[in-house]
Structures are given as structure tokens and as C-alpha cells.
Request: fold
Amino acid sequence: MNDPLEGLRVRVVPMGCRTNIFESESLSCSFSEAGAEVVPDGGFDVAVLMTCSVTAEADRKCRQMIRRLRRESPGGLIVASGCWAQKVQAGHAGELGVDCLVGNRIKSRIPDIVRELLLEEGKQESPRVVRVDVQADHDWDPLFLSRPQARTRAFVKIQDGCDHRCSYCIIPDLRGRPVERPPQEILEEVRKIASSGCPEVIFTGINIGMYGKSSGASLGEVIKRAGMVPGIKRIRLGSIEPFALSEELLGDLSGTSKFCPHLHLPLQSGDAGILRKMNRGYTPQEFKACVSMARRFLGDDLHVSTDVIVGFPGESEEAFDSTLGLLESAGIGRVHVFPFSPREGTPAALLEGRVPPEVKNTRRDKALVAGSVLLEGYSSKWPGREVEVLVETNSNGICSGLSRHFLRVEAASGAMPGEVILLTPDSSKNGVLHGKV
Reply:
């Protein structure tokens, strides 16, 4: 009997975080290996939406995407998976047009679930719900990326879940307690990625700094071993919490020549009182000390990017100014700014001292301007210095790629995606370097 997936048009749509991107690409590989045709857009027979629920806005976008998918293929099968699918009521999902809800920790089962749905006669009146208790489940969901969609960089999921419990975050409830991927499986996937011709991997997860508690290998050891895989030219980390940095980890990173000198360390606020309300687990001074320690190991040119939340309950003008001051004094490069959005079910949603929307918007705009100035300040260090660029695209003789320090670089060159070139930028604008090979 033929596989019911064979020949079907399958569309996998990621929303939200880098972990969702990895999970979506892994599922695409599974469907392709079963004989399905994975399509990037347009009509489909089966659509899998990897949902996000980090904010109420993320929920809205998930609902919007489901409606759009249903309009594009009225008779197609729609599966919603991920964080929004972990908590949404089945009736509401059914009204939107979802045929099946698959929660977290069991996404590798989606192809088999789709097979079962396709073999059933007729459509169900309400969506099928396949979910587990993520707080009690400690198994690793064995998704595997055998061939990345991009030719230049691939995400590798090494960890899932979190138990830190920042006061504004709902993700620990939806992703569950921390679990780790076995190191041998990580390295096997890295070897597969390298053999496909993709030279860069980015280790990602929900809280990757927790890696090493149960796997038998530390995060630094896994990175060092990945750096020895033939064909891998670059290794990066996704977001890592400041309190996860240690001298041991930084020593391993500095001792791995393939590791790129860029760290994304979420700050969220530069005010001690707000950080306590957020339950972040560090003070502004400790954050600055982490950045200084990282530069001691990885060099003064280390690019540190960050996230900040503006308008958290109780944030005064002085507290907001403290955040801007810390961003500058810590030498941050790129800044991602998020206005506070109360998440139902979190302690922060019950806090008093809500900041008016117009004030939040003003602070968001100020923080974005400050971030642009900081990024331009960091990127202005590079004109006149030779930088290594991994080319991602080439359009009409203009190639674009990333430097090892995670800056976008554009130059006139015949280099093609996947090639590594050396060039000396002669200018920087809006955080992008421009130069000649």
C-alpha cells in the first residue's frame, strides 16, 4: 500500500522563535522523505502551522494565519502545533478551521497523525486533539533535520523547556520543564548538515544555558565537538541568558575557532527594581559584569545584542532612563525592543502600576532610536578592517552575507551563496557594512 502522504502538497509554516524554525524544517524533511511535495506557498493538501503564544499579539497572528490558510485551500487539512495549539480550546480552534491540534513535545508524530487523518472517511466535526502534559513529560521529541532548506546556515535544536519563571512569561507552562537532546544526536545532525553543504549551525532552544544538567556533556563540550566536524565553518548560539554564562563555558567558546564572536544576552531592563519584579535573577551590575567577562574571553570586538521590554508595570521615567544608560555603558550593538504586553496566567499580568499605552509607545520609539545609534556605533568600528563574510545571496553582482560578528555585509562580487570571502568595508550605514572584495 502506498504511503498516503506520497505526492501530497504539504506546507509547513513557522511562526515566532528560532526553535519553531528548526521544528518546521525538521517536519518538512520528514514529509519530503515520505514522498510528499513540500511547497513554500500557494495551495496545499496539508498545512502544518507551527504556532507561537509568547504574547497576545502572537496569538492574534496565529488566528489570522489559520484563517488565511483556510481561505487559500478550503478543502485542505490544517494542523496547528506548538505553543498556541498547546493551550487553545478545541472548539475555538475548530471555528477557525483547524482540523487537528498537536501540542508540544510530540511534534515528531505529526506525519503519522496526518496519515491517520487522511485515511479516515470524511472530516470530523471538531478538531482532533493530541496533547501531553508537558510538565510531566521528560522525553526528548526526536525531530531531526537531515537537510536544511537554506544553503548557508541551519538551526539545531539542542534543548527545550524552561523552569526559570520570569514573571511575564507563559512559555514554561506551554513548553514544559527543561529537557536536553543527547549530544551524540546533536553531532549526528551537525554532520548531516555539513554533508549537505551548509557550513554554519546555530544552536537553539528555549533556554540553552540550561544544557548540561542531564545529558552527560556540557554546552561548551558539545560546541567544541561540533567545531571538529568537517565542513562546519561557523558555529553560533541563539539567545542565552546572562546568568548561564560562566568562565568554563566562555573558555570553551574562546577555544573553539569556529565559534563566532557574537552573543545575544537578553537584558529586558536596566533598572534593579524592575528586574526584581521580572524575576530575572540578576542586577544591572551583574549584567554588565557578564558582558565584561564575555569580552575578556572572546575579545573587545565581541558583538553583544540584547532584548529590552519597555513599559513594564511600575516602570518610571528614571527606570527607563536606566535601561538606556546600561545599553550604552555595556557597549551593546543590536537592540530588540518589545512594549510590555500582559500575558494572562502570568504574575506580571496582575501587577499594579500599568504604564499607559501612549507612554509605552514613546519609550519604544526612544529605545529604537537609541538602538540604532548603538548599532551604528558598533558597526562603525569595522570600515578599514578586513572581515570574513559567508555569502547568503547574490543579486545582480551584489552579494550579501554575515560577518563572524553578526553584521550584515554587502559588496560587489561574483561570490555565490555558501562561499566565504574576505573584504575590507569602506563604510557602514544603518548597521550594514559596504565594501569591496
